[in-house]
Design brief:
The chain is mainly alpha-helical. Helix content is about 60%, strand content about 5%. It has a two-stranded antiparallel sheet with strand order 1-2. Helix 1 packs antiparallel against helix 2 (about 60-70), helix 1 runs antiparallel to helix 4 (about 110-125) and helix 3 (about 75-105) packs antiparallel against helix 4 (about 110-125). The relative contact order is 0.13. It comes from Novosphingobium aquae.
Length: about 140
Amino acid sequence: MTGTLSPFAGSATAPALAGSGRASFGQASASSMGMKWSALHDAAGIVATLAGIAPEPMTAELRNFPAVIRDAGGWQREMAGQGVDDLSAIMETGIGALLSVHARGIDSRTAALSLWQEFMTARSALLALAPKARDMRRPF
């Protein structure tokens, strides 16, 4: 995907994708998982387009996942980090294959739909690692 780079408000050094819908935070607060998570969803949008379906909008639950899992820490953060890395490897390989097939003029919709479903299943498992608000209440 391509986008026009524009600076954050008040800064001429930190670019952001214009119209990407992402929150504009400084470099200091950007986490590796947050950047990978965002890139995964950009990649999933490409896969959805190749599958002939509309890309999914970024909901608050999806957007906030890296911060929620960071705050949860422990085994949940470790498992989520490994899961994001694994899903990144799957998507990178899958998109490379899809784009190669697509460039040859071969219909890639079925394969793209399979990769999309794989992404959705894996992402659901990752989201299940995040504690829900009710789980984070302090006992009295």
